[in-house]
Amino acid sequence: MTRERNGREAKSEQRDKKVTTKSLRLMKARGQRIVALTAYDFLMAELLDEAGVDVILVGDSAAMAVQGRHTTVSVTMEQMLYHSELVSSAVERALVVGDLPFMSYQINADEALRNAGRMVQEAHVEAVKLEGGKALCATITRIVEAGIPVMGHLGLTPQSIHKFGTYQVRATEPEEADEVRRDALALEQAGAFAIVLEKVPAALASEVSKSVSIPIIGIGAGGGCDGQILVSHDMLGLYSKFHPRFVRRYAELGSQMKEAFERYAKDVRAGDFPSERESY
Asked: Is 4 part of the annotated catalytic residue set?
């Protein structure tokens, strides 16, 4: 009984321990899957943290999930700072990663470092994420050498949607698959602590995960990655306009919320709300 209790306490202590870039690497080494989701506000971040999510990404997917845009490219640095600060203020255990938005890091390494520094200093994130491969390695190294952890992003990179012209699966052809392999190795050598690999064939994602020592966190990349990430609004059924095959919906909160709003409107119009009990 004592041994069982000690085992439970050890697991509880591990679950409550602050997640860092180092602990993510150790999780990969142990074969322990990394759980990641997105958040854009205090309440969602608090719930994710209490649920034991390991990594909370303040994604530029806020453009679609929060702002109602069609792509991520319109999100500004100021908006990402705002959302990231809200999330950081709610989180105690998870590692908080802030997305660097479009054109905040592509101009040059100096600009990228300045904006990464703002994310850490003003929004209090613990790492930043940027999209791209070998061409951005010098920039990644510059940011990492300044003491800011960087998460990479390969495969489908949404900030380049106008270049791709589609959100279809990437790296299905041998040439692009080889590019993903080379880029993953290059990002690791540049100092990235993890890589999000989005919408590539599962076999390729599994191969890439085995080829590098840093965690590969998949989204639409099969079960062979070291962890998984989804947009919280998608998996909760809040964002009904977007339901690709890789999103498993764990709730249908959008329809439940709409029903609640309709019931409230009906009660107000009928004079049933507020009741005497709900009045002072």
From this structure: no
Q: What is the Cα–Cα distance from 228 to 216, expressed in whole angstroms?
A: 8
Residue with tokens 């904006």: 115
- Where residue 35 falls among pLDDT bands split at 50, 70, 90? very high
Tokens of residue 50, six digits: 């209490």
Bridge-based pairing state of the strands 34-38 and 127-129: unpaired
**b/e map 6-28, b = 16+ CB within 10 Å:** eeeeeeeeeeeeebebebbbebb
Taking the C-alpha atoms of residue 228 and residue 55, their distance in angstroms, rounded to an integer, is 10
The predicted-structure confidence for 53-110, as pLDDT tens digits, reads as follows 999 999 999 999 999 999 999 999 999 999 999 999 999 999 999 999 999 999 999 9
Torsion, Cα 58 60 66 68, to 10 degrees, reads: -170
CA distance 46 to 117: 24
Question: Could you say which of 126, 131, 188, 198 is catalytic?
Answer: 198
As a CATH number, domain 2-249 is 3.20.20.60
Q: How far apart are the first and last CA of the chain?
A: 53
